[in-house]
Design a protein that fits this description.
Aminopeptidase; 5 helices; eight-stranded mixed beta sheet; alpha+beta; 30% helix; 31% strand; 169 residues
């Protein structure tokens, strides 16, 4: 049993473990599998479980969502997510749980960044509901446009960069 990071009802956010690799691999949603550039999806998932910044949202010990974080600065992180076929059954619970995940990430990072296909209207509405703001378009490796979203921690008033503070003599 993995260490539980957050629990709400039957949902638990846990660190990704070796046991999750096969579970996600055999049940990954086709739209999530299509996003992986790695030709060997099993290898990609296996390497992710070694990363401390990969987590699984489970319902009753069954993986629903894979969440990854990649630091892009001292206070900024890039967040990505993949889903299993369980998302179709449990999407409302995932939506209700998601603010807890964002709050957890904001304990470490001031700014969360992520990119979404402009065709994915449901995800765009979900991100807007959670306080993410579209900040423009970026291109992925295939040259396709993605909407770039940013969310800053509303509980922290980080109005200046610590590295820009004047030196006192």
């Amino acid at each position: 049993m993995a260490n539980v990071i957050i629990k709400r009802g039957n949902f638990e956010l846990v660190p990704m473990t070796k046991a999750h690799v096969m579970q996600v691999f055999t049940d990954i949603a086709p739209y999530s599998a299509a996003e992986y550039e790695e030709p060997d999806l099993f290898y990609a998932l296996d390497s992710m479980q070694e990363d401390a910044d990969c987590m699984i949202l489970e319902k009753n010990n069954v993986a629903v969502q894979l969440i990854g974080l990649q630091a892009i600065g001292n206070q900024q992180v890039y967040m990505w997510s993949s889903f299993t076929n369980q998302m179709a059954k449990h999407w409302m619970g995932v939506v209700r749980f998601s603010p807890l995940i964002i709050k957890y990430i904001h304990q470490t990072y001031y700014e969360i960044n992520l990119n979404v296909s402009p065709d994915n209207e449901g995800t765009i509405n979900w991100l807007s509901w959670m306080g993410f703001i579209p900040s423009g378009y970026v291109e992925d490796d295939k040259g396709e446009a993605l909407v770039h979203f940013v969310r800053c921690n509303p509980d922290r008033k980080n109005v200046y960069a610590l590295s820009s503070r004047p030196v006192m003599h």
